[in-house]
Specification:
Length: 98
């Protein structure tokens, strides 16, 4: 005899949220492994939440219903843009001299 399982919408939402929380746990575990590897290799300490992945923020976002939980770590690209612009100016000046 086969059992047919049907979920209510709330059960499905809870299952989906649990699956996303499992992904967060997996990423958190991988981040911790990377930190341990880095410490063992370089003898420097890193802050997991600031440097790799902020699992607390991601979990809170999932529980609050935010679908952008993967962006728990915001990356500031302004320094990169400034460096790119400086390199472009340097290359232009170099080509003018030569």
């Amino acid at each position: 005899m086969d059992l047919i399982m049907s979920w209510t919408p709330n059960e499905y939402k809870a299952f989906k949220k649990g699956a996303m929380l499992q992904v967060v746990d997996d990423l958190d575990n991988m981040a911790r492994m990377a930190v341990f590897n880095r410490i063992a290799t370089n003898k420097k300490k890193l802050n997991i939440e600031k440097d790799l992945f902020d699992a607390k923020s991601a979990r809170k976002r999932i529980i609050d219903g935010d679908n952008t939980w993967k962006e728990a770590k915001k990356i500031d690209t302004t320094r990169h843009a400034k460096a790119q612009e400086a390199m472009k100016k340097w290359a232009e000046n170099l080509s003018k001299k030569g």
